[in-house]
Amino acid sequence: MQLSFKASPQALDTVANFLIERGSPGVVLEKHEVRAFFPHAQVRAELRRDIQRFHESLGEIYPSFRGAGLRWLSLKDRNWQHSWRRFFTPQPIGKSLWVAPPWTKRSQARGREVITIAPGMAFGTGAHFTTRTCLEFIEQVAGLFDARRFSALDVGTGSGILAIALAKLKAKKVMALDIDPVAVRVAAANIGRNRVAKVVALRRSELAKIAGRFDVVVANLTAETIIELAGELPDKLRPDGYLVLSGILRPKMRAVRRALAALDLLRTKNDKEWSTMLLRKKG
What we know:
Elements: E1 2-6, H1 12-21, E2 26-29, E3 33-37, H2 45-58, E4 71-73, E5 91-93, E6 97-100, E7 113-116, H3 129-144, E8 150-155, H4 161-168, E9 171-178, H5 181-193, E10 200-204, E11 214-220, H6 223-228, E12 237-249, H7 253-259, E13 264-271, E14 274-280
Parallel strand pairs: 6-7, 8-9, 8-11, 9-10, 11-12
Antiparallel strand pairs: 1-3, 1-4, 2-3, 5-6, 12-14, 13-14
Helix pairs in contact: 3-4
């Protein structure tokens, strides 16, 4: 399936990263247009809805997006089996992490902790700013615990990449949640691939149904979803616990901050349209 739509030139990089994170094996950028390709089986209602919401959100920043519709076209079969792999390359992240697809050599990691993620039907390959900065903030927070093992909760785990990173960074236990059955299936495969199943407990569940408190909570969602969960997220933190939030378009950052005003804001990182936040619950 080919997806195409008009786009402002200054937004092309953000759009391409978003679509690759959603599993597109290839995105073609032209001056005023984006064309992305997806396997037929992947183009489900959830994917179409996510892309539509993203498209509408960018309309708040780039007026040219308004009224520029998304166009889906079914293409004739081609041998995509191996050609799309060139779009996914290993990425060093932070000081100690290395995110790579399964077909790359581990020796390239040069002593870093390897997170193996198969690009597929769930959000999170490490290519997008929101995922990268979540990983950077997680690495920073993990370092604050020194030798002490910590507990963590990953809300909306997607591919499982953040939960796997928490396990690799010495969390004693990680709870990974998602309500999408496809995401849960993909995350389970990646958790097994990275041999962290003894540390990461995967659940298809809403946040409200999870008991207990955690030292670290991460949520790479959307601003709207984070605001909806703002009454629950602080309750899942232990005193002096850390909350990492991303997936936030910059115009929505103030609204997110207001919704979580009871927490201390320690750090933000911005890149073009996106923001990532690190907050702490007062002891």
